[in-house]
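Batch job 17 of 40 flagged for manual review because the log was empty.
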Amino acid sequence: MTIRWYPGHMSKALEQISELVRKIDVIIEVLDARLPYSSSNHLLEQVRRNKPCIKVLNKNDLADPMVTKAWVQHFQRSSGVRALPLSAKNIPEVKNLVKLVKQLAPNRGNPGYPIRTMVVGIPNVGKSTLINTLAGRNIAKVGDRPAVTLRPLWPVMNDQGGAYRLATSGAIGANALDYTNVGTFAAAYMMRRYPDLLKERYKLAEVPQGPHDVVEAVGRCLGCLMSGGVVDVHRAAETFLRELRAGKAGRISFEEPDTPADIEAELLKMAGIEVQAQTQPEPEQPE
């Protein structure tokens, strides 16, 4: 099944951001720490105008820490970019974000010269929660469904692998996906990357042979049964996704390939560019 998810106001949001950037001191881009590449809108770089940017890797408490560390290092190689993993509900961690904003705008923050920031990000990455924590009160509406914040920055959905990863994380609304397909996709990913977590969470002696079998095994473990003891596959897949999103199976990152270098190589391959190792000719031996 192809996930088709192209909200018509994405261009409008980018246009508004492009205009607002002129008045902004620091951009805060909120990403999902479990999929830092897939949850970003790469068109943002075209409208950033070299303004300092902090990439907040939210939901850090749910992500694989080793994968997150690699992405932080990757992002900070870019000029003017800093990366900060945190949980938007964690007040001490969010205070570190405030300190970082002040470091990137040292000439502002005095009386009469407030630091002007803009929080951007795709749906359901935690923008509203972060804004509320920063403000110390509820000024942005929070919900457990995508697109609660007005004028969200939507990702470009050319890559179906990325689309399915976003669907697995909960960034894509239920109307645009089939739970059984996405749950099966997630099961296949967990089989490859986190088989031990699967076994531990769902009391499996061994990981089943195929992703459909994993979904059924999860359904049996969680009691997603119909009359006659038959697994309700749709309900099993939906429940499985909710468990993954809530971190009940452990700290998981959804990117595949999971490292920045692997993704860059994959993008080159998709573009038809062969990556070849550069070898230096051996020096001539003196006669």
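Reviewer: the log was empty due to a logging misconfiguration, but the result itself is present. The longest strand covers residues 26-32. Unflagging and moving on to job 18.
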